[in-house]
Amino acid sequence: MTRIDTSVDVMLRVNGSARRLRLDTRVTLLDALRDELDLTGTKKGCDQGACGACTVLLDGKRVLSCLTLTAQCDGRDVTTIEGLAPDGRLHPVQEAFIRHDGFQCGYCTTGQIVSAVALLQEGRAGSDEEIREFMSGNLCR
Ligand code: FES
């Protein structure tokens, strides 16, 4: 039986750095970040698009990395939780999570923080109701 090579070359800009990968076309962005680039801050919760634990920014917009193929991201900017504190200085949202004891088990926290950063950038933090609506894709048990 002949095996067909389904790999593809992909260039991503991850947290400001160019990263070249050769991957199977079916590899999700979540798995590429965690398994190929060792960026394990992005969590795998449901792996089905239901929990938000895997939220990252793609060209500044929130995406569920478990539902995003890496091959779709060629030439694009990816920001993970690690990219929010590039020089070790925490992002104000990260500081707020610590200051207000926003952690429970912590598993959803990185997705919550990345999503909250995007929410602020999107200008969707005008009211508690608006924040609830636009954070509703990020679940905490
Ligand atoms: S791991 Fe992606 S939405 Fe749950």
Model description:
This protein has helices at 29-36, 92-99, 109-121, 128-134, and strands spanning 7-14, 17-24, 55-58, 61-64, 77-79. It is an alpha+beta fold and 141 residues long. The chain has a five-stranded mixed β-sheet with strand order 2-1-5-3-4, with helices on both faces. The structure holds FE2/S2 (inorganic) cluster. FE2/S2 (inorganic) cluster binds at residues 44-47, 49-54, 64, 66.
Ordered list of secondary-structure elements with their pairings:
Blueprint: E1 7-14, E2 17-24, H1 29-36, E3 55-58, E4 61-64, E5 77-79, H2 92-99, H3 109-121, H4 128-134
Bound molecules: FE2/S2 (inorganic) cluster.
Short description:
The protein has 141 residues and is of the alpha+beta class. It has 4 helices and 5 strands, in the order E-E-H-E-E-E-H-H-H. Helices cover 26% and strands 19% of the residues.
Percentage of residues in strands: 15-25%
- What ligands can be seen in this structure? FE2/S2 (inorganic) cluster
Biggest sheet, in brief? 5 strands, mixed
Number of helices: 4
Helix-and-strand structural type: alpha+beta
Q: Radius of gyration over alpha carbons? A: 16 Å
Residue windows where pLDDT falls under 50 for at least 5 positions = none
Q: Helical percent range?
A: 25-40%
Order of helices and strands: EEHEEEHHH
Strand order of the largest sheet: 2-1-5-3-4
Please give the number of β-strands: 5
On the 0-100 scale, what is the average pLDDT?
A: 95
Q: What best-fitting shape do the alpha-carbon axes yield?
A: globular
Distance between the termini: 46 Å
